[in-house]
Amino acid sequence: MTARRTLITGASRGIGYSLAERLAGLGHEPVGLARSAPARFPGEFWEVDLADRGATGATLEKVLSGGPVDAVVNNVGLGRAGMIGAVDLDDLAELYDLNVRAAVQVTQAALPSMRARGWGRVVNVSSLVTVGLVDRTAYGAAKAALE
């Protein structure tokens, strides 16, 4: 088996952290990105607020200077409750930025090394909320855009 270096956003807990543990257990190299570091992580970890475009770019440069990335898992997510008539437009912009822009930025950074080696994977973690949930309008729309 070839060990793969996998970049995971939102890796400090939940799905992202569990995935990192699973990949490490299979002999792969997880690289985690999140706003705060967990007490322990089964691979390389970078603290970065993915809502900050500049900080995200600088961190991605550091990650890629350590070697190519074989796969990306865009797992980070931000959700806020709100029905369509009450969605705050600033919240909507923030949700789209973190849920969509961050995924595009991370993927764009990793793609050149994947293309150069002729192999790569990108997984975008979405939500069943995209099929409709009355008080998750903005989150559902952002995750649908990611899909």
Spatial ordering of strands, largest sheet: 3-2-1-4-5
Helical segment tally?
4
Strand pairing plus helix content: what structural class?
alpha/beta
Summarize the amount of helix as a percent range: 40-55%
Distance between the termini: 30 Å
What average pLDDT do the residues reach? 91
The largest sheet is:
5 strands, parallel
Number of β-strand runs: 5
The secondary-structure element order is EHEEHEHEH
The geometry reads as: elongated
Report strand %.
15-25%
Question: Which value, in Å, is the CA radius of gyration?
Answer: 16 Å
Give the low-pLDDT segments. Answer: none
Description:
The protein has about 150 residues and is of the alpha/beta class. The protein is built from 4 helices and 5 strands. The chain has helices spanning about 15-25, 55-65, 90-115, 135-145; strands at about 5-10, 30-35, 45, 70-75, 120-125. The protein is elongated. The model has no long low-confidence stretch (mean pLDDT about 90).
Walk me through the topology.
Blueprint: E1 5-9, H1 14-25, E2 29-34, E3 44-47, H2 53-65, E4 71-74, H3 89-117, E5 121-124, H4 137-146
Parallel strand pairs: 1-2, 1-4, 2-3, 4-5
Short description:
The protein has four helices and five strands; from the N terminus they run βαββαβαβα. With 147 residues, it is α/β, with parallel strands linked by helices.
Looking at this protein, list some descriptive labels.
16% strand; 4 helices; alpha/beta; 5-stranded parallel sheet; single chain; 147 residues
